[in-house]
Structure formats: C-alpha cells, structure tokens
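Researcher: Here's a chain I'd like modeled. Treat it as a single chain, no partners, no ligands.
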Amino acid sequence: MKRMIAALLLLCLLAGAAACGKIVPEGPEPTATANPTAAATAKPTAPPTQEAELSPTPAPTAETTPEPTATPEPTATPEPYVSPVDFEALWELNTDIYAWLEIEGTDISYPMLQSREDDAFYLDHNSDRQYSANGSIYSESAYNGTDMSDPVTILYGHHMKSGAMFGNLQMLFSDPAFFEEDHILRVYTPTATLEYGVFAAVPYPGEHILYYHDFNDEAVFEKFFADILKTRDLSARFNEEYAPEPGDKVLILSTCLIGYNKNRFLVMGTLLP
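Model: Modeled as a single isolated chain. Structure tokens:
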C-alpha cells in the first residue's frame, strides 16, 4: 500500500513540473536571423582606392655641395720682342736695311739690304749708300720681299779676297770639320729672330735661280732641292736632317765660286721651328 502511495506522489510531482515550464534539451543556441531589410539597405564598402594605399616615403635626396670652381691662373703675357739690333738707328742711316745676317762661329755679320728702285744698286754700294767695291749683302725686290716669308730667299754677297762680305763662305762651309759643327744662319728682323739649319753647301751653275724656278710650285720646290742633295763635288757638303719639304722656308747665301766666278757657291738653310 505504501509503494502505491509513493508512486502516486512521484507522478504528481512530474505533472506539476511539466505545467510550470518545458524542459529545453541542451544543444547549440539557434543562430539569430539577420534583418533582411537592413541587409538590403546597407551600403557596400567601397574598395580601397590607389590614393588610399600608403606609398613608400622616398629617401631624402642628399644635397650635393658644388665643388668650388678653380680660378684660372692668369696667363703670363709674353714679353714683347726686343731685337738685339738697333734698327731705329740703322734706319736713320738707310731705310733700305731690313734685317741683319749673322753666321754662328764666323766673322760674317752684316746688315741685309734691298733697293726698291735698282736691284743691282748694292752690288757696288755699301750700307751707307756710298760706292764700294765690297758692295753689301742684299736681296732683289723683283723676287723677294723683306719679311722673310717667301719659300726661298736669296742673299747675294761678293767673294772678297780680304774675307769681307762672303769672302770666307766657301772656304768655311766646304771644310768637312767646320760643316759638321752645325753652324746656324741667324737673321734678326725688327720683330723676330730667325734661325736656319744648314742642309747643303754646294757649287752651282751661274743661272739666276729665282728667275728660272717658281718655288711657290711645290713640285718645283721639291725637285730643285732633291737635285741639290744629289750634287757630286769634292767641295759639296750635306746635312739631310735639315733638308726642306714643301711649305718650309729656305734661305740661300750666294757668292762667286773660287776659281770660276761665273758659277756660284751656295749655302742653304731651312728655317727652324
């Protein structure tokens, strides 16, 4: 009887609990359903723009300090040429004097003259314009100027037994020992000192060289001096180190040949740089 009463009480308790509330089985909580209206009206997120991306900060440019400009050193002004010859004093005596010839190691040292009226005048006149059998050292205005710029300039002088003028020219330059000493022909002008290296000392026929040869023609220039260097004579001397080429300036000293004064003895030099 007691067991029946206990069973009835248990049933009553269970019925009351059911009436008070449902027993929810344990499990995952239900997911909340999103509001469809809100989802429809939400604005889409704009994709990030390129401007929004962070660009790398450029490295600061190092400031270049300009190197100081070197101040050019002032160029030394060359001293004006002063000739060792007092041309002002010479011109007071004779304006036909235009240069001075000197041959190293010799006594040959004379003014160079040129007459504007008569090319033969200084054949028998001195630098004072006085008659003299010695004459002068001179060039001819018909064939040469006085600035030494011609391809070939010829100076004439007598072979005097006294040794004056070009009296010793052949004796000196036909001597092998003297020739090998390399004597320079030096010409002083009012504006420069010109030096000529001697390349030939030879006997030559009595023809007028500048009349028969136009040295402005390079072929004529080249052939003439090539022929000179082929001269065969016991008194001929050569130094081909100074042999001229077209474009060079040549100075020729001309005098009578010893023993046959219708021919000439020539000393030839090329203008040195």
